[in-house]
Amino acid sequence: MKFNKKTFKEKAKRRRQTARLPFEEKLKIVEELNALIRDFAEMKRPLLTFLLVISSLNLGVCQEPHLQLQKDLFDWGRSREGAVLEDTVRIKNTGDDTLRIEKYEFDCPSCMTADSSIRKIPPRGKGKIKITLNTQGYKGSVRHFLYLFTNDSLTPVKKITFTTYVLGKEEKLPPLLKILTPVLDFGRIKPGGKKQAELLLKNTGEDTLEIYQLSFLSFPPQNVPAETLKLLGGTTGKLTVFLTGPNYQGKFRDSLVIISNYPEKPRISVPVRAKVEKR
């Protein structure tokens, strides 16, 4: 702030005049000031009360329930005709008010049911609904929906999807390849040296699984069996994979690609690792 010589002199003059006043007049001035302060406080009190009421109303508006699902898509994979499939819908109320589940509705009330006594979920509370699907009379791809009606103002109706692929009673499950060796580890290897590792596989389906081809991504495999491996349903087998050490020192990382007649994932990769030492 810029210094003003004239204003400074005027303020100093008023202070000197006030200092010369008698004590009674000074006391009177103080009382008048206190009265002004009280009047000001009385004037502000209604405004303060009004602001407090508005604030409480705003807080009430913000207190709403909010529906949160652990997941809204349930895939049962492959199933056999006539099987009764079950799963659980898990609900959480992440809001600040009680969540009310008003009703459930299925697009197929004759084949799906909901078993739950949960109608109210408190703030930060949890609930669950047991769902069943009867696959009798179905074949092929099946998709049904559950609709949850709640007092969540953002999503008053929540749709949950249930899917499965139903096989006929005499139809075989297609081959399902399961890798039992999550990482193909060759351990320590020298540049130009050769090591082998075993890859364990299982066919969890019913039809025969055939392995057509094996290959590394970064450089060709060495002595990987060229003949196809066949696994009957429910059986386990193994493949012996050979690796020639690369011409450098340090960590080796690659992927072994398996090509098979697994219909859902005909191409599967398995991580490969080794540690290349000095010559």
The main pleated sheet reads as: 5 strands, mixed
Strand content: over 45%
- Based on CA atoms alone, the radius of gyration comes out at 39 Å
Cα shape? flat
Question: Which percent bin holds the helix content?
Answer: 10-25%
Along the chain, the helix and strand elements come as: HHEEEEEEEEEEEEEEEEE
Instruction: Please state how the strands of the largest beta sheet are arranged side by side.
Output: 2-9-8-4-6
Enumerate the spans where pLDDT stays under 50 for 5 or more consecutive residues: 56-61
Write the layout of secondary structure elements.
Blueprint: H1 5-20, H2 23-62, E1 67-69, E2 73-80, E3 84-93, E4 99-106, E5 112-115, E6 120-121, E7 126-134, E8 140-150, E9 157-167, E10 177-179, E11 184-189, E12 194-203, E13 209-216, E14 229-231, E15 236-244, E16 250-260, E17 267-276
Parallel strand pairs: 2-9, 11-17
Antiparallel strand pairs: 1-3, 3-7, 4-6, 4-8, 5-7, 8-9, 10-12, 12-15, 13-14, 13-16, 16-17
Structural summary, described in words:
With 279 residues, the protein is of the alpha+beta class. The protein has 2 helices and 17 strands. It has helices at residues 5-20, 23-62; strands spanning 67-69, 73-80, 84-93, 99-106, 112-115, 120-121, 126-134, 140-150, 157-167, 177-179, 184-189, 194-203, 209-216, 229-231, 236-244, 250-260, 267-276. The strands form 4 sheets. The protein has a 5-stranded mixed β-sheet with strand order 2-9-8-4-6, with no helix packed on it. The chain is flat, with a radius of gyration of 39 Å.
